[in-house]
Design brief:
Layout: E1 2-11, E2 14-24, E3 29-33, H1 40-46, E4 55-62, E5 65-66, H2 72-78, E6 83-86, H3 100-110, H4 121-131, H5 148-161, E7 166-170, H6 178-195, E8 198-203, H7 206-212, E9 215-220, E10 223-229, H8 230-235, H9 240-247
Parallel strand pairs: 3-8, 3-9, 6-7, 7-8
Antiparallel strand pairs: 1-2, 1-4, 4-5, 9-10
Helix pairs in contact: 4-5, 5-6
The structure holds adenosine-5'-triphosphate (ATP).
Length: 250
């Protein structure tokens, strides 16, 4: 679903992300970890062609689309619908005076989902909301009437309703308290097992990563200093920086 080779992202001549290899297959979860400024978000955004001011080289293929050479039209085909972006605080991105159901319905319409004969949009929306363990009733609420954890699950439900095959999640749980974090992680884990969603997660939280990721890339100052199966990297880190990150855990 995601195939990256020799990706290099520069801002003003400075390399901020240098990723020789990154693959995420169907049903797999890969995490990028590292401290603030290490290039994690830049790597994630470049997968959707969302680093307009950057100089980019390499090879990036997402859902069969060659992102670095694709036309804007081709990129729009994958953004939002096939590849969903889940950010830290989705509530800020939700229009405050619009009920969640109306918002989701608009997104479906924009991407042409549920318009033709087949499952009616209301049913697609209801199923998506239930898939993230929310009650259908939430669709009648306004964004300020839901909690941070519910907002995050709603953002994931939106991705499901649109038929996303890949979820790119940038610190999806860092604005949430610990019990709510566990709920969101549980939802993501189920979706990848049951629906074969590919998940690329950016996080500075190694405890979270250890509960969900199959593989881990550790980034420092724009470079990948270590990568491999999550169990191995977290149990027997080979790079001093990974050891430092692990020692910093509470
Ligand atoms: N649009 C931009 N123009 C110039 N420099 C940028 C731009 N976006 C990011 N950078 C720089 O790229 C580097 C990597 O930033 P990035 O946001 O990818 O790090 P990160 O690991 O995701 O950090 P955080 O966890 O704080 O989000 C930083 O030094 C940042 O200042």
């Amino acid at each position: 679903m995601i195939e990256v080779r020799d990706l290099r992202v520069r801002y003003g001549g400075r390399v901020v992300a240098d990723v020789p290899e990154l693959d995420v297959r169907e049903g797999e979860c890969v995490a990028i970890v590292g401290e603030s400024g290490s290039g994690k978000s830049t790597t994630l955004m470049s997968l959707l062609g969302l680093t307009p001011d950057a100089e980019i080289s390499g090879h990036v293929r997402v859902c069969g689309v060659d992102v670095l050479t694709a036309s804007p039209r081709r990129l729009r085909e994958i953004r939002g619908a096939r590849v969903a972006l889940v950010m830290q605080s989705p509530q800020a991105a939700l229009s405050p005076a619009t009920r969640l159901g109306v918002l989701m319905r608009r997104a479906l319409k924009l991407h042409g989902v549920g318009n033709s004969a087949g499952t009616p949009p209301e049913e697609i929306m209801g199923e998506a909301v239930e898939a993230v363990l929310l009650d259908r009733e939430i669709l009648r609420r306004y964004p300020h009437e839901i909690s941070g954890g519910q907002a995050q699950r709603f953002a994931i439900a939106l991705a499901i309703a649109l038929g996303a095959e890949v979820i790119l999640a940038d610190e999806p749980t860092s604005a949430l308290d610990v019990t709510v974090q566990a709920e969101v992680v549980g939802v993501l884990r189920r979706l990848r097992e049951e629906r074969g969603l590919a998940l690329l997660l950016v996080s500075h939280d190694l405890a979270l990563v250890s509960t969900i990721a199959d593989r881990v890339l550790v980034m420092k100052d724009g470079a990948v200093v270590e990568s491999g199966p999550a169990a191995r990297v977290l149990a027997e880190p080979s790079h001093p920086y990974t050891r430092e990150l692990l020692e910093a855990l509470p």
